[in-house]
């Protein structure tokens, strides 16, 4: 479990294919503190298991499903990635409950400054937009954000100056893919209502 509050921006050191899978090594500082093999770190919002550690890097494995669902396969050496350690039981929840289970990707279609804030528009598919509501939560590349508008094929949010300085999103060009995790409560509600008897739903 995560909060969507990014702890630091790491740097991709390597992305290599090994025995039919992929291994990702990231240079980092903050998220290495207290981390051991087997612990979880969210990389661009995807919960991944640490398989190896050095004084300056950690390594995780990427399954075929992870590569299908996320933008991690697009990474290149030197790219920045948003990092967050899994939530400690006694930690503050500064954002919202983020599972680190990426639902799919979206594409940045526009940036628009307003004062020192930045409007961002992300296009995505109808199967994800159905769970996105104005003022609801969403995690974009692992960052906990509040949705402002929901459009027919996209949604918008605003980044304050502090957030812009501490995540990778403002550095990405229009057309970049981003990882999206919708609020899991919306999916549970849909499933619950869908399984209710028709007569109950009509009351």
Structure commentary:
By secondary structure, the protein is α+β, with helices and mostly antiparallel strands. 16% of the residues lie in helices and 41% in strands. The chain has helices at residues 64-69, 126-129, 161-166, 184-195, 198-201, and strands at 8-18, 21-27, 40-43, 46-53, 57-62, 80-85, 104-114, 117-123, 137-140, 143-150, 154-159, 177-182. The strands form two sheets. The chain has a six-stranded antiparallel barrel. It has a six-stranded antiparallel beta barrel with strand order 7-8-11-10-9-12. The chain is globular. The chain starts with 7 loop residues before the first strand and ends with a helix.
Question: Biggest β-sheet, characterized?
Answer: 6 strands, antiparallel, barrel
The whole-angstrom Rg is 18 Å
Binned strand content: 35-45%
What is the number of helical segments per DSSP (H or I, 4+ residues)? 5
User: How far is the first residue's CA from the last residue's CA?
Assistant: 36 Å
Q: pLDDT under 50 segments (min length 5)? A: none
Proportion of helical residues: 10-25%
Overall body shape? globular
